[in-house]
Structures are given as C-alpha cells and as structure tokens.
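Q: what sequence does this backbone want?
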C-alpha cells in the first residue's frame, strides 16, 4: 500500500532530531522509493507548512514544527508504552466530554483514542485504571495531547455488575490478540526477507511493515490481564524492537550526514494522520 505524501513526509521528518532539517531532494528521493511522485511531495510540503505542521527556512530544509511535538513524542514512545502499565484494581479512569469547541473536540477525540478510551455512554469515556499515575496521570497525558480539552477526568469505581461487564466488553479482546499474533508473524517473515531484497525494496518494505506494526502498538488500549493476554502484546513490541534495528540499517544511507536516525522511517506513523488533525 502506497502511503500518502503527507503521511510519508511526517514519518520521515520524525525520524531525525529537529536540529537536523531534511532537504526537499531527500524527501523526493524517499518518495520515489515508495512510489510517491515529486509533485505530490512538493504540494504536500506546501500544505503542511501552511497549516503549521512543518517548518522550513530559506534553503529549502524542512523539519517538524514545534506544535507537532506532543503527538510525535507519544508515537515515538511505542518502545516504552508497556512500562506505563501497572496493576489493575478493577476501577476505571473516566472522562466527561460534554464541553469544548469543534476544533478542541477533534483533538480530544484523537487523544482519547491514542490513550485507549472507549465510549460507555453518550458523553462518558473510560478505560481500565491500570496506567501509571492513575486518573491524575491519565489527565496529564490527555492534556498534553489536547491542551484545550476542557473535560473532567476522574477515577470511577463500584459500578453495578451489569455496567461493569459492559465496560469490559468495549474492547474486542479476541481481535486484539489475533492481531498481535498476525503482526508479529509479518514482522518475522519480513525480517527474514529483507537481506534478499535490493536496497530500495528493503527501504519500502521496512517502511510499510514497520509502520503497520507501530500503528497497532500505539493505538493499543493497553488493557490489563483479566481482559487481554498481555504476554502476547509484549511479544509484539519485542518483535518490533528487533525489526526497528533492521529498518534503521535499511534507511541509513538515506539519512546520510543529516544525523543518527532516532527510529526507522515508518515507525513515526501517525494514527489517523494524527498530525493532520491538528
């Protein structure tokens, strides 16, 4: 599947520190590897710049804009997301989303999805209270991703048994577990295949396969053991860490003297083109 020019640009710029902006020619070259044309790259750059998502100087060098950093940090934290998971005491973190403008609502919806919240009632979203910091920690994470969220975040416990069971079924655990296994198998098959591919083919495959895996990891709701098989989820993240090292090697020549890759291209994927919602 060919990525959009916008998605490709945002992914590529996220792989390097902001102190190392990327020339247009390098973005065009990478686009060619993934069947994204030069004109599409240039048009997308102009649109992203006008929306304040990328920055440029007079020499035609581009980098992510500062406003993109909250989502960028969250996506790039995929390696350590599992470390934020703790014991679940059966309570929930709830968010009341009755307030907010249309623009803030879009950011809020993105933040809720990134942090694994699901809607229980019309204005009430919740997730298991198993992340570090409890309700206060979730509030800080939400406010980082959507600063004008304007919603109440609180701990919710002692639901009646019917509502509690309904809450645990807001996530399709069977589908999540099946996807863990399937994505892990794809990573392992691709890792075995990469050495046999040309440089360009390896760049394209590692971008697409790694990006799909990171998408799954970043959007995972990080459910606790009573609801999900957490060992299977950890195995997927471990497999992606190994694959990430291969991806960096595939893209090392592209980075050139721009600096050390902080992650392999494709690993900077943004859920639902998250930066484009900003």
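A:
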């Amino acid at each position: 599947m060919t990525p959009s020019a916008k998605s490709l640009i945002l992914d590529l710029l996220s792989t390097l520190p902001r102190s190392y902006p990327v020339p247009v020619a390098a973005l065009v070259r990478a686009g060619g590897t993934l069947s994204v044309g030069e004109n599409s790259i240039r048009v997308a750059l102009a649109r992203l710049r006008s929306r304040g998502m990328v920055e440029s100087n007079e020499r035609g060098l581009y980098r992510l804009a500062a406003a993109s950093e909250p989502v960028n940090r969250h996506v790039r934290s995929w390696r350590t997301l599992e470390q934020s998971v703790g014991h679940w005491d059966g309570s929930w973190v709830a968010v009341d989303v009755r307030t907010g403008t249309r623009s803030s609502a879009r950011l809020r919806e993105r933040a809720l999805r990134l942090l694994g919240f699901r809607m229980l009632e019309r204005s009430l979203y919740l997730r298991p209270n198993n992340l570090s910091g409890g309700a206060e920690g979730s509030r800080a994470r939400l406010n980082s991703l959507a600063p004008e969220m304007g919603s109440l975040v609180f701990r919710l416990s002692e639901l009646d048994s019917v509502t509690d069971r309904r809450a645990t079924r807001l996530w399709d655990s069977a589908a999540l577990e099946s996807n863990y296994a399937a994505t892990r198998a794809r990573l392992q098959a691709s890792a075995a295949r990469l050495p046999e591919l040309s440089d360009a083919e390896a760049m394209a495959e590692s971008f697409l396969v790694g990006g799909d895996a990171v998408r799954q990891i970043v959007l995972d709701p990080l459910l606790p053991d009573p609801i999900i098989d957490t060992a299977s989820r950890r195995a997927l993240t471990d497999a992606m860490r190994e694959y990430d090292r291969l991806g960096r090697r595939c893209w090392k020549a592209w980075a050139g003297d721009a600096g050390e890759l902080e992650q392999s291209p494709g690993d900077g994927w943004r859920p639902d083109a998250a930066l484009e919602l900003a």
